[in-house]
Design a protein that fits this description.
The chain has a seven-stranded mixed β-sheet, with helices on both faces. Strands 7-6-5-8-9-19 form a six-stranded mixed β-sheet, with helices on both faces. A three-stranded antiparallel β-sheet has the order 3-4-20, with no helix packed on it. It has 448 residues and is α/β, with parallel strands linked by helices. The protein is 39% helix and 20% strand. Helix 2 packs across helix 6. It has 14 helices and 20 strands. Bound molecules: NADPH dihydro-nicotinamide-adenine-dinucleotide phosphate (NDP).
Length: 448
């Protein structure tokens, strides 16, 4: 049994049996058996089942939000937003089932057409930062395309996904279609990667484990989608609405206590506005409400574990520009921290995955782009300016998968999400995600 801990109180809130390789094999076998009937289901019926699941998530919204908040230590208001998105994701993919179709292509001597075939059994490996949300981003398109799934939650946060699996059965999704196997990445995850009957791995997590997924998948030429780390830049030009940009910036780093692959943890500011912006940023950061995740007003909770807190702390040496307060007593707390940095510093290059922002000045547009791109990652980012032409010039020049202009929000149910460079490949959400859970088949029918 593995103890599941509330990061805000350090109390054990559940015991979950960690499964082994044999149990993983059994889940893959169940998914394989369920596949022919699931893929053969009429599209409207598959859509109806996904819609029912979405409705059940809505009906259990508060229960799922509480589970997520306690298990991941996230503020209840944030957890509610995430569970709301989970329902929207299933509604979206219910609607997408019969809108993801093939083509007819003009050829000589007959008719050529393409089909979108499901892959079969897909293995989904998800992290602890957005346990249910990220699971739904993979489950929605995988199920809509007619695949069956074996999902491994992070060892630290299995509870919401285990509850979702119960709701999937209650919705009428047949046994064997959605299988959740809690356990260690090195055991359950590894087995899924190697298993000859698993056609694809959808993975979100660290770049290091992403590399292992890719290597392991090579043995059976598995398809992989990798959503990995980030070190995204929030680029603020002097002509931006500085008050608005500074008021928004803390939430783009400290949301989910910085444990967000999209965190805009490098704040690049044009030198002529640097002093003014840093004053505004510190003021805005002072306003972030850190405390009990169960309190409706809380905006930032603790980190996920004591070990992770140590890693985060190792990034900050010397006196930061700003360090906030945290509650006394139990919990894996780490304060909102702003440091001044240069592009080559470790804090400006490595993913911290905690509430630490690096503030970096730049001279002009060319230097802003150069610094933003000087990273092995390329997941998200923001551009703040009142010059529309510059906004688009810079957006096209930054090597990153998801960008927002005069906003820090870039994750939506209907739009593609994913990375450039070592932030991974493949796209989640929107119609784009369906590409990663289906295979194109080309059929020629002779009319001669
Ligand atoms: P990991 O990449 O280790 O974990 C992500 C998932 O992969 C978990 O379900 C984990 O299982 C599983 N896993 C771990 N090892 C293997 C393996 N050998 N084979 C198959 N699956 C495996 O992330 P961490 O939790 O260790 O976090 C470390 C860092 O990764 C963070 O500090 C952050 O920088 C980054 N990260 C990025 C995320 C993102 O959203 N892109 C999400 C999480 C982390 P288990 O629970 O057993 O560890």
């Amino acid at each position: 049994m593995t103890a599941v801990v509330n990061p805000a109180t350090e109390e054990t809130i559940a015991e979950v049996e960690a499964r082994g390789a044999d149990e993983t094999d059994a889940a893959v076998a169940a998914a394989k058996e369920a596949f022919p009937a699931w893929r053969a289901l009429a599209p409207a019926d598959r859509a109806r089942l996904l819609r029912r699941l979405a409705t059940l998530v809505e009906e259990h919204h508060e229960e799922l939000s509480r589970i997520e908040s306690r298990n991941a230590g996230k503020p209840i208001s944030g957890a509610r937003g995430e569970v709301g998105m989970v329902a929207q994701v299933f509604h979206f993919y219910a609607g997408a089932v019969d809108k993801h179709h093939g083509e007819t292509i003009p050829v000589a001597g007959g008719v050529d057409m393409t089909f979108r075939e499901p892959l079969g059994v897909v293995g989904l490996i998800v992290p602890w930062n957005f346990p249910l949300n990220i699971a739904s981003w993979k489950l929605g398109p995988a199920l809509a395309c007619g695949n069956t799934v074996v999902l491994k939650p992070a060892e630290l946060t299995p509870l919401s996904v285990l509850r979702l699996a119960e709701l999937a059965l209650e919705a009428g999704i047949p046994e064997g279609v959605v299988n959740v196997v809690p356990g260690k990445g090195s055991v359950v995850g590894q087995r899924l990667i190697e298993h000859p009957d698993v056609a694809k791995i959808g993975f979100t997590g660290s770049t290091e484990v992403g590399q292992q997924v890719m290597r392991g998948a090579a043995g059976t030429i598995k398809r992989v989608t990798l959503e990995l780390g980030g070190k995204s830049a929030n680029v603020v030009f002097a002509d931006a609405d500085l008050e608005r940009a500074a008021a928004a910036a803390p939430y783009a780093v400290f949301d989910n206590a910085g444990q967000d692959c999209c965190a805009r943890s490098r704040i690049l500011v044009e030198r002529s506005a640097y002093d003014r912006f840093s004053e505004l940023l510190v003021e805005a950061t002072r306003g972030v409400r850190v405390g009990d995740p169960e309190d409706d007003a809380t905006e930032m909770g603790p980190l996920i574990s004591a070990a992770h807190r140590e890693t985060v702390a190792s990034f900050v040496d010397g006196e930061p520009l700003y360090r906030g307060d945290v509650p006394d007593g139990k919990g894996f707390w780490y304060p909102c921290t702003v440091v001044e940095a240069r592009p080559g510093d470790r804090i400006a290059r490595d993913e911290v995955f905690g509430p630490v922002a690096a503030l970096i000045p730049f001279a002009d547009e060319a230097e802003a782009v150069r610094i933003a791109n000087d990273s092995e990652y390329g997941l998200s980012g923001s551009i703040w300016t009142s010059d529309g032409a510059r906004a688009f010039r810079v957006a096209r020049a930054i090597d990153t998968g998801v960008l927002s202009i005069n906003s820090n929000s870039s994750v939506r149910v209907s739009t593609p999400f994913g990375g450039f460079k070592q932030s991974g490949f493949g796209r989640e959400l929107g119609m784009h995600a369906l590409e990663g859970y289906s295979e194109v088949k080309n059929v020629f029918y002779s009319t001669d």
